[in-house]
């Protein structure tokens, strides 16, 4: 019995502070870091690389800060490029934030 007391006697139940749990699960906290609303579309876009090479793709969704484009092939994209998606009102410089297979996430700069 003394061994059990020695092992478990100093354990306190409920050591996680309620305020920490409330911070993680509160609605206010999740609103602070929510992504901007995205418009789901299926419109054509053209991406121009620094070398002048252009690629056509499809805008899947976009927001005021960026867009997601799907290309027909899985070519690696450089970090900076120019995007022209006039059908959704976006044109200008963009930075590649992520790329998975043929889809690319761009942040407008």
Please give the structural blueprint.
Blueprint: H1 2-8, H2 18-25, H3 27-32, E1 39-48, E2 54-62, E3 66-70, E4 80-85, E5 90-100, E6 103-108
Antiparallel strand pairs: 1-2, 1-4, 2-3, 3-6, 4-5, 5-6
Q: Can you describe this structure?
A:
The protein is an alpha+beta fold. 19% of the residues lie in helices and 43% in strands. It has three helices and six strands, in the order H-H-H-E-E-E-E-E-E. The model has no long low-confidence stretch (mean pLDDT 84).
Largest sheet: 6 strands, antiparallel, barrel
Q: What's the Cα radius of gyration? A: 24 Å
Structural class: alpha+beta
The helix count comes to 3
Question: How many β strands by DSSP?
Answer: 6
- Overall geometry comes to elongated
One letter per element, helices H and strands E, the order comes to HHHEEEEEE
Write a compact overview of the structure shown.
This protein is 19% helix and 43% strand. With 109 residues, the protein is of the alpha+beta class.
Keywords:
109 residues; alpha+beta; six-stranded antiparallel β-barrel; 19% helix
């Amino acid at each position: 019995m003394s061994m059990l007391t020695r092992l478990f006697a100093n354990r306190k139940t409920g050591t996680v502070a309620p305020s920490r749990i409330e911070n993680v699960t509160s609605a206010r906290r999740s609103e602070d870091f929510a992504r901007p609303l995205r418009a789901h579309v299926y419109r054509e876009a053209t991406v121009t690389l620094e070398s002048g090479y252009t690629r056509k793709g499809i805008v899947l969704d976009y927001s005021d800060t960026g867009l997601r484009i799907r290309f027909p092939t899985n070519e690696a994209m450089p970090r900076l490029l120019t995007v022209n998606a006039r059908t959704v009102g976006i044109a200008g410089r963009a930075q590649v934030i992520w790329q998975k297979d043929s889809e690319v996430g761009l942040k407008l700069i």
